[in-house]
Design goal:
This protein has 263 residues and is mostly beta strands. It contains two helices and ten strands.
Length: 263
Amino acid sequence: MKRILLTSVAVIACAGSSALAADMALKAPVYAPAFSWTGCYAGFNGGGAWNSTSYNIGHNDPALFPAFFNGAFASGATPSSYSLNTSGGIVGGQVGCNYQSGPLVYGLEADADWANLKGSEAINTAVPGFVPGSGYVSQNLESIATIRARIGYAFDHLLIYGTGGIALGNTNDFYRFTFPLTNETYMNTYSTNRNGWAAGAGAEYAFGYNWSLKLEGIYYQLDGSAFQAGAQTPSSPPGAAHIVTSNADTGWTLKVGLNYKVW
């Protein structure tokens, strides 16, 4: 009888120990994996942009205009330069990849934004001794894109970074200048893709594991270009044209972006 009682107590003790161990296993803490910026993402952005450019105007062959244009350009009767400052909204998207090593994050990002940064200016002239002229010039920066490297420092879910790379843009320029008394008009519309560089900084905060929100400021410079505004009227000298040389476009973009880490 005593042996049976001891055996029963041992069985109950073992069962109790097993149940306690199982209960402890069920209640063991579960640790979430540490957050990492490593991975690739896609998203969209929107914000504003500010652009500035300047132009020089000349003529294609000074020998064609010895009596009028040489002096007219020198005096300003035919304008030899002008500048435009524009601003507007931009919207687009971006894709990129990051790699985190310790607190440092290395990345590569490409973005493309539609823009409508349009500005115009009247360039009317009236200089004593010269035929008066009336003109109109405009530029529209229609898109801007960048391909940039990023390097930053991660404070867990917060990333502070600097960035730099190449910039691409499309501009549409218009030039018209008329001398009403002589019935001469020089005009052209010129659209071109421009290359340059971009650099800036930003901050990005990840909420959850896949989503992040960023604020980014980028300075860009797009190389200059040139086009001819040919004579549009029979009274103009044959083959005559104004040469409109665009200097570099420079400006800023300030954007808010939302990213989703796809893996």
